[in-house]
Specification:
Length: 387
């Protein structure tokens, strides 16, 4: 990884007074917070301080004062830039010896030492449910009972668990969405219920061109000890017969605010539309439009949206040549993890490349893949409202 923080392009959308979808902000994300070690820091893309969050705020919330692990009652979307050992200017800070848990002043984060917070994090725990997606490099994930290495495209769902990150070998750029939860009075933040964990069917055949999406879930079942729930692939894959090569791979559902500390959520029915005060996380594979364009009719589109229990969000016929257009009362965080894709709005088209981020605040839109290769986009959709 380079010795400087990588500039990352973001696009924030909204609607105008006529209800047309528009771009509100576009360009390199400005909220860059570099540490005293060149190349190590965070970039904020969006911050919210209440749930559900508004669709029509006039502020660029990516510039709001942020905190770790995000505002109480809300959350944030950010990238973290961690260094490899050979990218540190000067001596590598020594690792702190492990110690008993120490709470931060606000008692929303705790640490047990073990890192240097430049190439290796302390073992820590936050009062949040986190979606972590590797964008570049690699990162070691160390729990109390498990260790693994995560690579680009892999998703970790940290459900309030103790963990340590090790980026010392080649460095890492990783996106995090941190969503507020509420621990018990003692601050343990342990598993609340025990629904069955869903694992991928090893016999499942994915649509052509679709790669299995790795899903790692961590939690604390007893105070002070993290455990692996699952390190597998998405167990629920939804295809669209009218679009060969299309897939939705379900990852997680949050059905309340604060978010629950539970080891599984895919038994909940929400796919594209989150529950009230909730969130859904899915990974989409969009095949080249040439695979299906001109062959899809209204009946096929209606069948797709019915299959994901969201017929009311389809806006079929509102955009020429884009039959899968949609409009929902959600704020969607969209991260391109592979390929390139074009976001179609009522008033503009925006091409997004691998590693770029869009925040779609409601409004009519569609996705268009004009390349010759699949595009993979991780999308978390949050229940939202118009103030």
């Amino acid at each position: 990884m380079a010795k400087h923080m990588k500039p990352i392009r973001r696009v924030i959308t909204g609607t105008d007074q006529q209800g047309k979808s528009i771009v509100n902000w576009e360009g390199i994300a400005p909220a860059v917070h570099e540490s005293s070690f060149p190349g190590r820091g965070v970039t904020d893309f969006w911050v919210w301080n209440k749930s559900p969050q508004p669709l029509n705020g006039v502020d660029d919330a990516g510039l709001w004062p942020d905190e770790f692990p995000g505002p109480r009652g809300g959350g944030h979307l950010r990238t973290v830039h961690w260094l490899a050992n050979d990218a540190v200017d000067g001596p590598i800070p020594p690792l702190v010896k492990p110690h008993a848990p120490i709470p931060a002043a606000d008692k929303r984060t705790w640490d047990r030492g073990g890192g240097n917070n430049v190439t290796v994090s302390d073992t820590h725990k936050t009062e949040s449910v986190d979606f972590g997606i590797v964008m570049e490099g690699e990162r070691g994930l160390i729990l109390d009972d498990y260790e693994t290495v995560i690579k680009p495209g892999d998703i970790v769902i940290q459900v309030g668990a103790w963990h340590l990150w090790d980026s010392s070998r080649i460095g890492c750029l990783m996106a995090f969405e941190m969503i507020s939860t509420k621990f018990d009075a003692a601050g343990h933040g342990i598993q609340e219920t025990d629904p069955p964990v869903m694992l991928a069917n090893p016999q499942q055949v994915l649509p052509e061109g679709v790669k299995p999406q790795r899903r790692i879930i961590t939690i604390d079942k007893v105070p002070g000890k993290s455990t692996l729930v699952a390190d597998s692939f998405s167990p629920v894959v939804i295809a669209d017969p009218a679009r060969p090569g299309f897939a939705i791979q379900r990852m997680w559902v949050i059905d309340s605010h604060p978010a629950k500390i539970v080891p599984e959520t895919l038994h909940l029915p929400n796919i594209l539309i989150p529950p009230k005060q909730g969130t859904v996380l899915n990974v989409f594979t969009f095949p080249p439009d040439s695979n299906w364009q001109g062959k899809v009719d209204k009946q096929a589109v209606e069948a797709f949206y019915k299959s994901v229990d969201a017929p009311h969000i389809s806006t079929f016929g509102s955009m020429a040549n884009h039959p899968y257009s949609q409009n929902s009362n959600t704020v969607d965080f969209c991260l391109v993890t592979e390929g390139e894709i074009t976001l179609i709005l009522d008033t503009k088209e925006i091409k997004l490349l691998k590693g770029e981020i869009a925040v779609i605040r409601g409004g009519n839109h569609a996705w268009c893949n004009r390349s010759n290769y699949p595009a993979v986009v991780s999308i978390s959709s949050h229940d939202s409202f118009t103030e």
